[in-house]
Amino acid sequence: MTLSMAGKVVSDSVVAQRAGATVPMAVVIPTFDRRELLQELLEAVDALDPAPAEVVVVSDGSSDGTDELVADLGVTLLVTPRLGPAAARNAGWRATTSDVVAFVDDDCLPDPSWLGRLWTAFSALPEVGVVQGRTRPVRPPGPYERTIDVASEYGL
Questions:
Q1: Are residues 49 and 112 in contact, defined by beta-carbon separation less than 8 angstroms?
Q2: Which residues contact 27 (CB under 8 A, 6 or more apart)?
Q3: Predicted confidence band at 79 (pLDDT cuts at 50, 70, 90)?
Q4: pTM, full prediction
């Protein structure tokens, strides 16, 4: 299947399946012109233990070499016409085949056990629909960013 968004052909197969995946989850990453941060994040995603079955990066109109970086790494790339992070997340999860999807922003760095802990929560309680992990800013926010520090088991 070929997916085209904003006139660009994205991929011959919509979702790249990772070999040796240990959790049936997808990781979706929306991004816009943050090539360097995305590279750090993709290195952290590659180090996740267990690994996700799918990784989808949604480049939301990037023009800084993001698309080339993702293509060189063999990660699934979707391209959207600068619709914003919510639309990019929606395009990403719709392109996966996994029943459980984890979202991570391009300016975040997940702990290596992040995905395994999320999967534990989902697999232990079938009625669970949403799980959020502990979120701490890795670097100080810029002038156009908002950030929160979620440190409690029950939210803020």
A1: yes
A2: 45, 48, 52, 54, 55, 56, 101, 102, 103, 104, 115
A3: very high
A4: 0.80
